[in-house]
Design brief:
Elements lengths: L3 H4 L2 H5 L5 H13 L1 H21 L6 H66 L6 E2 L3 H7 L18 E11 L2 E10 L2 E9 L11 E4 L2 E8 L2 E7 L3 H14 L1
Antiparallel strand pairs: 1-2, 2-3, 3-4, 4-7, 5-6, 6-7
Helix pairs in contact: 3-4
Length: about 250
């Protein structure tokens, strides 16, 4: 029992964890105590056996590389699972932001287009000479545009309708030449603008819109974009639009 205090320190002594004073004292004790010396030797042999067993099988470098690669893949997979919801949310926000930006940009472009059409219509109404060719005959107005605009179009038959063709002139939108037809219904005047779609780029108002105090109807046909604008009732714009569409 007198050696218990020494044997408790054997593992620390063999692992080099004792202070120099304690290690020297235990070393002197081992030289004079056969029992503690035998116990020390047994523990040294046990440590060597464990160490040897740990090196009995050494994996080849290729196997070690595969294990390391597998660990790295699992770590990346774990990180991916951890960050995937965050990345997905961030991506969703980016997509929503981009779509919102594109929608707002298109909305501003459409509003700018409608403002320009309203300005052209107001300028026509305010002019002392609102049209360059004065005629109620569609067969006179249509040929007048030949050589003045890079396309042709048809005018509707207005008989039995409340609309009267006043005349026409060449107008410009987005620096693209087009036709402006002026119609009268009761005491109101309506402008019908016709432009090539390719001359307007990606800018085009919707089928029905409003700019300032004017209502607007718009559609595309055979590469041409039609705009009907006026301060008349929506039903009047719809009727004139249908007549224009029927003319082809």
């Amino acid at each position: 029992m007198a050696c218990d205090s020494w044997t408790e320190k054997l593992d620390a002594y063999l692992d080099g964890e004792l202070s120099s004073a304690e290690a020297q004292a235990l070393s002197e004790h081992l030289r004079g105590c056969a029992g503690c010396a035998a116990e020390s030797l047994s523990r040294v042999q046990q440590k060597r056996a464990i160490h040897a067993a740990g090196h009995r099988y050494t994996p080849d470098p290729a196997f070690r590389a595969r294990i390391q690669q597998s660990i790295a893949v699992r770590r990346r997979s774990a990180l991916s699972r951890l960050w995937m919801p965050v990345l997905a949310a961030a991506m969703a926000l980016l997509i929503v932001g981009a779509l919102s930006l594109a929608v707002n940009r298109n909305r501003r472009a459409d509003q700018q287009l409608l403002s320009e059409l309203a300005d052209l219509h107001v300028a026509t109404l305010a002019s002392s000479n609102p049209v360059d060719v004065v005629s109620t005959d569609r067969h006179t107005v249509k040929p007048w545009f030949e050589g003045k605009i890079p396309f042709t179009f048809n005018l509707p038959e207005l008989q039995d309708s409340p609309f009267v063709l006043v005349g026409a002139k060449v107008s410009y939108l987005e620096q693209s030449p087009g036709a402006e037809l002026l119609f009268r219904v009761r005491q109101h005047q309506i402008s019908v603008f016709i432009f090539q779609e390719r001359g307007l780029g990606n800018v085009a108002a919707g089928d029905a819109a409003q700019s300032a105090s004017f209502n607007v109807r718009s559609w595309s046909h055979n590469g041409l974009r039609y705009f009907v604008i006026g301060d008349v009732a929506a039903q009047d714009l719809d009727k004139l639009s249908e007549l224009m569409k029927g003319a082809g």
